[in-house]
Each structure stands twice: as C-alpha cells, then as structure tokens.
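Students often ask why inverse folding is considered easier than folding. One informal answer: many sequences map to the same fold, so there is more than one right answer. In these notes we will look at a single instance of the problem. The structure comes first.
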C-alpha cells in the first residue's frame, strides 16, 4: 500500500496517546470508586469497569478514528477490478496441420471446443470477433456480442494450406480499428504503385497515427492460437510491432508438440513444429503473455486463464473512500452500542 499524502500518517500517533488517556481515565474512575463507604458499591463499580461491554465501544471508536486517519493520507492499493475490455479478437489457425491428433480428438476440434468454452465465460457485454488464418487471413465473424453467431462461425472453420501468423495479427488489427486504414496487402506485397491516385495518397496521409505505449489500449486484445510456424505472409514480428504501436496486447497460445509432429492426409504427409520462440516474442513485444497447451485439457485451462485476465485486471486504485466508509461504520456501531448498553454516546 502506498500513500499520496504520506506526511499525514504522523497523525496516527494520536492513537496510542488516546489509549493512554483512556487507561488514565479508567484508573481515575477506579480510585474515585474507593471513596464509597459501602463495600458492595465498590465491588459493583470495580466489576462494571472491567466488563468487556464497557471497553468495546471505545475500542470500536479508536478503530474508526484509525481508519479515518489512514483515509486522510489517500492510500493506493493494487486490487482486482472488472476490466473495461470492450472487444477481443480470436485469431485461430486453420492450417492443414491442425488435423494432427496429438491433441485429442484433433488440434482443430480441441481449439474450437476451448474457444466456445471461453465465449461462455466472458461477460455478455464484451464484443468478440473471429479471424481465421492459414495461407491467408479473413474475418469470419465481425465483432459482436451475439454468442450464437460466434459459435456458428467457429463451427464453420475450413482448413487451408500455409500458415500466415502475421496476416492473422494484421487482420485482427484491421477489425479492431476499421478507420485506421490498416492495409494487409500493402504490408505483404510492399508499397502501392507510383501511379496511385491523389485520393489514395490523401487517404493514406489522413490515416497516419501516433504510436502509443505497448499494451496501453485497455479496451482491446487479440488471442492468437497456432500450432506451427510461419510459412508465408507478413513477418509476425512486423505485425507484432504494429499491434504494439496501437497499444493492443497479443496473447499467444501454442498448441501441439514442440519437437514436431508428422501428419498425413489423403496420401500426403508433412512435419509441423510449434515455433514457441516466435510466439513468445510476439507476446513480449505487445506486453502480453504466451501460453502452451499440449493437450485438450491444457487448452481449456489456458482459455479459462485468459478469460480471467481479460475480464478482471489489477489496478492501482485509491481506497481512501473505502477506508472512510469503514471508519464511519465503526463510529456508528460504537455510538449505537453505547446507547444500547449505557444509554449514552460516550
């Protein structure tokens, strides 16, 4: 816990002074009780002064005062609060290697089931978009809060050849920032021809943007799942840099065996290997995290963890209001018990 006005913490020294004052008053009251002639009255006074009921209201009032003094120093604490996440893009690999059965029943089906479970855990107000990538990338479901449409899009995945991880990231960014003129073809094939029209040049100039701090965009995120390594398309690190410039975190999920898997389909075979180093680098570049899932159960756990991270986040939050509320409640309780037990406030 940190404090915005730590100098006010010196006021807490009043608390032990008040405790000493209370003990002195109690001792003085006991001495005054000895002046009574009747021994029975002395015993009654002594018993009353040691009763826990007599000490509880002052103790509560002391705690209330302590809470209020702490609140006056404006404390900050790191606490978990509901995230303001507005849009999440699931970028999912649908390359042919997703047929591998090292993750039962196969990688694609396990990824589909985990993604649907992830959608079920998200708050209904969070928008989700689905991007599928193989040799190319496309938005198969624009951002929506309709979970039925999202599940239907996931169920319709069609496998293709190639793995363009960078394209998946860029297409996800284009979905998150539709007005930013993020041009996938330009990134993949280079600048536009010299004969581009003045309108095109004016549009490009208008869409320039100022990079922000990586991971600073708290309202968007990309979850990228793949089982292989880039074979075509935009350089993944170039795409990660673009995401970092927009402040978007790219959480990467690796599926399958790290050492590699040889798969066969309709008479042909190929060996695929999970490129963990690239996925870790993408996540690090965007201030996100990398997750490895070797089994279907691992994959579900990864998505459960991501759901928690994206819907709840740690923030440095001022809690002076909370402490003031606690102090007021303790003061009211102290006064109420005094009125109830002794028919007085002090």
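Output (designed amino acids):
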């Amino acid at each position: 816990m940190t404090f915005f006005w730590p100098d006010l913490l010196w006021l807490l020294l009043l608390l032990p002074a008040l405790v000493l004052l209370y003990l002195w008053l109690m001792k003085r009251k006991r001495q005054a009780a000895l002046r009574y002639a009747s021994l029975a009255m002395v015993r009654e006074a002594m018993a009353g002064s040691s009763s826990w009921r007599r000490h509880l209201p002052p103790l509560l009032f002391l705690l209330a005062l302590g809470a209020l003094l702490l609140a006056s120093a404006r404390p900050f604490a790191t606490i978990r609060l509901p995230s303001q996440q507005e849009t999440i893009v699931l970028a999912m690999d649908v390359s042919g290697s997703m047929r591998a059965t090292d993750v039962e029943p196969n990688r694609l089906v396990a990824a589909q089931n985990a993604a649907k479970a992830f959608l079920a855990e998200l708050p209904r107000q969070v928008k989700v978009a689905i991007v599928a990538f193989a040799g190319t990338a496309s938005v198969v479901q624009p951002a929506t809060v309709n979970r039925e449409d999202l599940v239907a899009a996931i169920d319709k995945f069609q496998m293709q050849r190639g793995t363009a991880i960078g394209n998946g990231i860029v297409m996800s960014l284009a979905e998150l920032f539709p007005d930013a003129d993020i041009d996938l073809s330009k990134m993949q094939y280079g600048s536009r021809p010299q004969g581009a029209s003045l309108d095109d040049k004016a549009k490009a100039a208008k869409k320039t943007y100022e990079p922000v701090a990586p991971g600073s965009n708290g309202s968007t995120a990309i979850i990228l799942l793949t089982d292989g390594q880039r074979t075509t398309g935009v350089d993944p690190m170039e795409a990660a840099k673009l995401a970092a410039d927009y402040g978007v975190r790219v959480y990467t999920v690796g599926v399958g065996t790290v050492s590699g898997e040889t798969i066969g389909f309709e008479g042909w075979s190929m060996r695929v290997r999970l490129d963990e180093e690239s996925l870790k680098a993408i996540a690090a570049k965007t201030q996100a995290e990398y997750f490895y899932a070797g089994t279907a159960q691992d994959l579900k756990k990864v998505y459960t963890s991501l759901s928690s991270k994206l819907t709840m986040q740690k923030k440095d939050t001022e809690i002076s209001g909370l402490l003031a509320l606690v102090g007021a409640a303790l003061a009211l309780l102290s006064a109420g018990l005094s009125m109830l037990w002794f028919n007085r406030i002090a």
